[in-house]
Amino acid sequence: MASKSAVPSANLLDELQTVLVHGTVARRVETLRRVTDLFLNNAVDYSDEQITVFDDVFNCLIQHIESSAKALLSRRLAPVAKAPPQIIHALAFDDLIEVAAPVLSLSERLGDDALVENARSKSQAHLLAISTRKVLSGAVTDVLVARGNDEVVKSTVNNPGAEFSEQGFTRLVARAEADDDIATCVGMRPSIPRHHYLKLIAKASAAVQARLAAANPHRTNDISAVVSEVAQRARSAPGAISKETTIAHGLVRSLYEDGRLDEHEVASFAGAGKFDETNAAIACLANVSVEVAEKMMIESQTEGVLILAKVGGLSWATVRAIINMRKDLADIDVTDIDAAEKTYERLRPSTAQQVLRFHRMQQSAATDAE
């Protein structure tokens, strides 16, 4: 444990203030260097109370030093896990990127709230520095994707430690339509949810499809199927299905086999934006394969959803939740929701069964042809 004598005492602030106000530039920089050395030599052993004293000293010092000295301080404190939190926050919000970048990219003292606030208010250079952090939560990447320029977005997507929310992936896929480099980066992320991947491939250029096919040989079947018909993407190789999708399908199948899968569960899945779970659930209730259900679910019109839901005995309220989920996750719009409701109410279960049998036959024929 560091001794208290190794820490600047509170009354030393007055002495420091005198040095900084009346001393030369060289004297000020030398004072900062000595205090920084004093802290770094025993940083691991300091108590919270001792770190607070250093925080006060550093905050006093940076009011009277030039930018180059602040930048040096930022570089020295950024890797230190127990760096004084207030000075780290002050450095992170400095307008000069030379000062802010080291702590924005490295400091563990900056939590999500500070990072989100910084990303919402500071420059693109600040956002770029944040995008390189070892770990990025979905809350932070939401802001980086929404506000960042192309360089920031690419850096964020290429960061293996970045997590993305459903909203984040939706925005990424939308931005990818106008930028092949972003499309390629997004498509190569292992964690991209399947429904977002399918939409990305459907709208990608031939160049992007070729890049993804070369980078992900196990997904070549996925890409080839999309080129010929968007709905056939569901028939891609098992290797193209993510671990998360496989787990979701397994959990829903277990609920069904245990007799615990009902309309309430389907509505809950849809309301939470869980495409994989919703798709698997409606497949179970309609007694079709997940592949057939997914093919019908990702069609641009709502007919496939109406057919599956009618066979599964779902109410209109649940059907509407599913339609809203598709719109939120994949920008699939419904021009007239009232007309869709009337169509669903008029649709007979027997008619829906006949249409579903046709879809099963198509799927079976396509599988046999491969």
Question: Helix-strand pattern, N to C?
Answer: HHHHHHHHHHHHHHHHHHHHHHH
Instruction: State the helix count.
Output: 23
Q: What is the number of E strands?
A: 0
As a percent range, the share of helical residues equals: 55-70%
Q: Let me know the average pLDDT.
A: 82
* Class from helix and strand fractions: mainly alpha
Uncertain runs are: 1-5, 227-240
Task: Determine Rg (CA atoms, Å).
Answer: 28 Å
Biggest sheet record: none
Strand content: under 5%
**What distance separates the N and C termini?**
70 Å
Q: In words, what does this structure look like?
A:
This protein is mainly alpha-helical and 370 residues long. Among the domains are: 109 residues; 127 residues, no CATH class. Helix 3 packs parallel to helix 5. The radius of gyration is 28 Å and the shape is elongated. The N terminus is likely disordered.
Give the SSE map.
Blueprint: H1 12-22, H2 25-41, H3 48-61, H4 67-77, H5 85-92, H6 97-106, H7 112-121, H8 124-131, H9 138-147, H10 150-157, H11 166-176, H12 180-187, H13 194-203, H14 206-215, H15 220-228, H16 243-257, H17 263-271, H18 275-286, H19 290-297, H20 303-312, H21 316-330, H22 337-346, H23 349-369
Helix pairs in contact: 1-3, 2-3, 2-4, 3-5, 4-6, 5-6, 6-8, 7-9, 8-10, 9-11, 10-12, 11-12, 11-13, 12-14, 16-18, 17-18, 17-21, 18-19, 18-20, 19-20, 20-23
